[in-house]
Amino acid sequence: MANNTASNIPNPCRVVVKVGTRLLTHNTGKLNLGYMEKLSRVLADLHNQGHELILVSSGSVGAGRGRLNLNRAPISIPEKQALAAVGQGLLIQIYEKLFAEYGLIVGQILLTRTDLVSRRRYINACNTVLTLLKMGVIPIINENDSVSTEELKFGDNDRLSALVAGLSDAHLLVILTDIDGLYNKNPRRFNDAEIIPFVEKIDDNIKAGAENSHDNLATGGMITKLQAAEVAISSGVAMYIVNGYDPAVLSRLVRGEHSGTYFRPQQHFLNRRKRWIAHGLVPQGSIIIDKGACDAICSEGKSLLPVGVIGVEGSFSEGDLLSVKDNEGNELARGITNFSSEELSWIQKRSSFDIAKMIERPVAEEVIHRDNLVLF
């Protein structure tokens, strides 16, 4: 088998499995209990082989809809949150019962986007997951939909699964979905659509295949999966998008067989702190830098100095995450700033020698130190 497939995954390995709403629910919106039983059996068997499993599961809204006998999809955000509040307990109860039949224990972790923005809470989430795995428990993770808002959602649990794979140092992330993998165009609309079996790098051509599908559900779903892949491979995690209607595909993947679309992890991947900077935080503003600064941070690995900043966008504080762009608006990096937007507007294009005279507090020489800077 080729070197860029899951044949390089160690045995035993740590695997994050993400299963979405379309697989977990019937067309009525209610839970597909038969599918959940098959999935639990496959995961239990993999666990018995010595693999460590983390399940990122959707389905709380569907479980709540079934429990309340709601015959229509929820309309408003409060309605979705209410259904999730009812359904999450039922969902974990079902998983607990199914895994218990195979002698396994599960543990529930509910996360919001803000849980991973805080460095301390990010580390706490990491420690909880790793401790559960050490105890032989299968963590079952879901977005806390009962309190999450649209502005701070992960994105259909795809991005959440990639963040979990990164913070847990997983070897493999498998996203189970309702199509066979990533296509060059929407297979539901184009008969000549071709599956892309291997992705070495997520470039504009790869992204265009998803963005041009013109299918609201499928487009959004595949775009978030590509975003998840960017997070995973930059964290050193291999990733598959596969058809998950038969959960036994997981066993074949772990054995090294190929299916769906495989995303090769970066050889030089981010350490855990830089993963948090790049993917855990949310940018609060942007700065534009000149060509000399671009060369310094991209080619020479240097810190970003005030003299290279030629523009400031947004309102932010010291310690916030910033998007670093070139003069054409291309995002080059993200990093934690040592200055507020107001201060940066004063000191941009200035030498480090002038800064101390302009700002009445102890300051660093760098706008963003290279240890707090992640290149894209």
Key descriptive features of the protein:
376 residues; alpha/beta; Carbamate kinase; Archaeosine Trna-guanine Transglycosylase, Chain: A, domain 4; 8-stranded mixed sheet; 5-stranded mixed sheet; 13 strands; elongated
Gist?
This protein has 376 residues and is of the alpha/beta class. The chain contains 14 helices and 13 strands.
Q: What is the averaged pLDDT score?
A: 88
For the biggest β-sheet, the strand order reads 3-4-2-1-5-7-8-6
Number of helices: 14
- What is the total tally of β strands? 13
Structural class: alpha/beta
User: Biggest sheet, in brief?
Assistant: 8 strands, mixed
CATH architecture of the largest domain: 3-Layer(aba) Sandwich
Residue share in helices? 25-40%
Q: Give the ordered list of helices and strands.
A: EHHEHHEHHEHEEHHEHEHEHEEEHHE
Rg, alpha carbons: 22 Å
The name CATH uses for the topology of the largest domain is Carbamate kinase
Number of domains: 2
CATH level-1 class of the largest domain: Alpha Beta
Overall 3D geometry?
A: elongated
How far is the first residue's CA from the last residue's CA?
30 Å
Query: What's the CATH H-level superfamily name of the largest domain?
Result: Acetylglutamate kinase-like
Name the beta content range. 15-25%
Unreliable runs, pLDDT <50, ≥5 residues? Answer: 212-220
